[in-house]
Amino acid sequence: MEKVTLKFLANNLAKMNEVPNYLSFEKARLYVRKLDLETEREWDIYVRSGNKSKDIPSYPNLDYKEWISWKDFLGCKFSTKEEFLIYCDRNLIRTKEQYYKHYEENPDCGIPFDPIKYYNL
What's the pTM? Predict the structure, then answer.
């Protein structure tokens, strides 16, 4: 066991006060949306898996002042498949190519990266 000294305490307190170098909220949200997670529980499982990038916080809801909701962070603004299909219809999205082009050009639109999996289409 390491002897507790003033130097040891000072070093550990300094580490506790370090501000993590996280991605911006927008960049983290874009990255996370591509993971195709649907719920806060799935996020927790992902974090515990050890696969999470170190530049994204484990608790983004506490670390980002821009936080809106898990639904927003994970990438779905549409609660039902019907809302999603209406959105696609209104935006003239008819093909896979059109879908992914729209997804890339409109990163904040809230459509999931993989709608087939997300909505069980």
Answer: 0.55
